[in-house]
């Protein structure tokens, strides 16, 4: 009998395998050869894009320690190369075979493969990735087509990637949707002479939820949900993009199940890549600004109930029954699990919520799941690294396993109450989590977390609240410490100006009443939340981009105009035209002024004792600021029942 059998040797399996190796465990990986998502994209020559997650959330801590120089979005080629390196690293431990059945018993499992081999193992860990129709579409769509109409019945990062390759060739896209949450994935701020990238997933200040979930939401969403109308946002321009949130009863903001689409906004894309567009496109940096496509009528949104006649290949929307040439269905993300039999007899049914934190199944013994929990923003690496540590501790520390498994039902119920409220399971979405909540939950569970009451200086508080909860934050010390983390954190802080901007944002936002906060957030020069204000000025650049894209891809494009489409686009843009009329630039960019002033006030105090600042003995802070700092040391919503010992 072996101790651990990992089924699936792709990206998700790496951190656990690394820990098992490090601690001398007896483990084997059984994995089908060359069949990861990235292998398939590589085989079809489709690694020609960049990731939606920043370098810091896409790579593992133990790689970042040596490779991190500056945050950007990695290319698919670089990401695939990293995975191949790790595959080679564990090749001696890997058996190339397909698992066709797993029988689970009280103290062991039997893993059966296609070739007829069986492995008896004390612990089994599934890391088999997802199967999803849109992955097939990604590899199989003919991107050289031109002057065609595509109907997408799905919207997400993969669909948006496909769209970004179709739009430049004068194809027309209809997205039938029940709403989605698009966000700018980056912006640049001048830092000296160099522009520094600010990646969306690094600016989420996750631990601020412990102060107040409600306030976290209102600050994070930039006033989007405050009154439902905000003429600088995509939602107000294209109401079909609004996703129904009426099922949300959880206190967590965002709740689990939030779908986010991350895209390069055209103004920021231009700033980063405009000087050499062809080189950027050849590397895989594609413009995928869905808001811009909508704004310029290249994409039209249709509500999910818009009638589709599949026999005639038509959809009725924007007042027209329109013929489409191609249909992209999407389909849910479902784990590629082989049949699992409880007691060797009863089929086990996977449902995300039946597994504690998506990792520990309620109904199986010594079986764990890695990689089926996905981030709304950021990369999978953060999640799978922390899941790898959790599973390693469950496997190697029986006392810890008994503690977690002993109260599994209570933990699952408490977790679900917190992240889903009373909403019924939504099987296609339940597995989506806000990554920094998830990583901190696991860190607390396994005892490698940072705590607010440990903060001694203002700098400590800024680190605790404004530095994002990337997995490497939890590798700084404790039983899973990795060499070089202190230095990595120093370099990340340098890149992000110590995250002081985010801390100042939290402070100033918190000093305002909720109704004032919404107004204040709109006086920002530029927001991350699909701010539509900068779009119009970049139409000429869009034409330049399209020409460059066609040159790089050697496209032969039929540029015939389409009067029916133009009329549909005009009708679909009616709300946009009204919103543009209502959009006024603020008299003053008060938001930016306030943050700048706050940063100036806090910078000289960073190494001051926070107790002295709160007590008024140093720093000369006014009472509201002192109260704010005091409450950060003992945040009201810190206790989470599913993490209790
Ligand atoms: C277009 C696209 C873009 C993406 N962009 C990002 C991004 O920007 N950031 C990000 O973090 N993630 C992204 N992802 C998510 C991506 O799925 C992950 O990055 C990651 O590759 C998933 O790793 P995994 O190990 O869970 O699955 P996989 O890499 O698919 O590995 C699973 C392994 O299990 C094996 N296997 C499956 N079933 C069996 C079985 N029964 N028996 C034996 N072996 C089996 C497979 O052969 C494979 O080797 C993207 C995905 C796609 C499709």
Summarize the structure in words:
This protein has 645 residues and is α/β, with parallel strands linked by helices. The chain folds into two domains: 2-130 and 334-452, FAD/NAD(P)-binding domain (3-Layer(bba) Sandwich), CATH 3.50.50.60; 134-332 and 512-582, no CATH class. It contains 27 helices and 26 strands. Strands 1, 2, 3, 4, 5, 6, 20, 21 and 24 form a nine-stranded mixed sheet that branches. α6 packs parallel to α7 (157-166) and α12 packs across α22. The longest helix has 17 residues, at 380-396. The chain is globular and about 70 Å long. The two termini are 31 Å apart. The mean pLDDT is 93. The structure holds flavin-adenine dinucleotide. Flavin-adenine dinucleotide (FAD) is lined by residues 7-13, 30-32, 35-38, 51-53, 58, 98-99, 127-129, 135, 138, 158, 161, 336, 338, 371, 379-381. Residues 7-13, 30-32, 35-38, 51-53, 58, 98-99, 127-129, 135, 138, 158, 161, 336, 338, 371, 379-381 line the site of flavin-adenine dinucleotide (FAD).
**Biggest beta sheet attributes:** 9 strands, mixed
Cα end-to-end separation = 31 Å
Strands, total number: 26
Structural class label: alpha/beta
Radius of gyration: 25 Å
**Global shape:** globular
**Estimated share of beta-strand residues:** 15-25%
Bound molecules: flavin-adenine dinucleotide
Query: Unreliable runs, pLDDT <50, ≥5 residues?
Result: none
Number of helices: 27
Number of domains as seen in the coordinates: 2
What is the overall pLDDT average?
93
Give the fraction of residues assigned to helices: 25-40%
